[in-house]
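chain below, 311 aa
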Amino acid sequence: MGGEVLPVYYLTGTDEYLKSSAVRILKSKVEMPELDFVSLESPTSAALLDALTTLPMMSGYRLVKTDCPTEVDALEGYTERRNATGVLIITDPPAPSAKKSKAAEGIKRFLSKAEEIDCSPLDERFIFGWIASEAKKYDVQVERSAAALLTEYCRSDMSRISSEFDKLASYRAGDTVREEDVRTLVEPELEFAVWQLSGAVAAGNAKEAMRIYNSFDVSAKTPEMMFGALYSHFRKLYYSLVTDDDALLAKELGMRGGAVYANRREAAKFGKERLEKILLALAETDEDIKNGVLPRELASEVLIFKTLTDI
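prediction:
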């Protein structure tokens, strides 16, 4: 992103930390971002063009950040405007569509001409380098096995690694972050994501629930993995609500320190009856998957849907 500032940037990949970093670097090109940076949600292309063609107030550029537009009619030719003062940053891919449309084809052509910034998860070499650099700020050492386990637990997602490493380094400031610290303080990514999913389900937010599901990698989206993760999570919530014996819960359900309280707090958002219905719906759907009643390619999405609707 050095040198010439281009009229349109398209951030691809799933790592929100890297996307935030890319936006932050682009914002550094603007002297007063509080005046010349605007974020729009689901705008029309006409609204985007209006924002982009508004002259910057205290800078040479005006940055406009948005998710992917649903049509780009008004933006025809904008990617070729090399003298543009408006800079468009598109942070999300087009919404999935079951069939091709004129609008979808137009969006595809538009994005193909934008400057792509790959925000896919980094490989271990870069992540370990980042951890080593951050460790100096906290005056900590990091065992290589701890860095490897943190990367594995967070599925190489820098947004999560950054947050979790801050916690680990603060815990071990002036000392060494060890593998056992990661196992004690960090939830594996799928479990963490299922907690996020649970919050969306509790709020009845289907859009957010599907966004979280779509952030899972391919291996986590298999029906077996999805059923296991969802059923285990909601089972823990249910039993934490109907059982008072903390030690028994921790032993029988494999909960770690502090997890019983966290599960009870989450379970309270649902209530006993709702959790019973969710568990029953998941079990019935699992039977449909095993018996071939439900096609595998639809199974994981249906499992998510069941947690939202069978309440």
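Strands lie at 8-12, 37-40, 62-66, 86-90, 115-118, 141-142, 176-177. The chain has a mean pLDDT of 85.
thats it, cya
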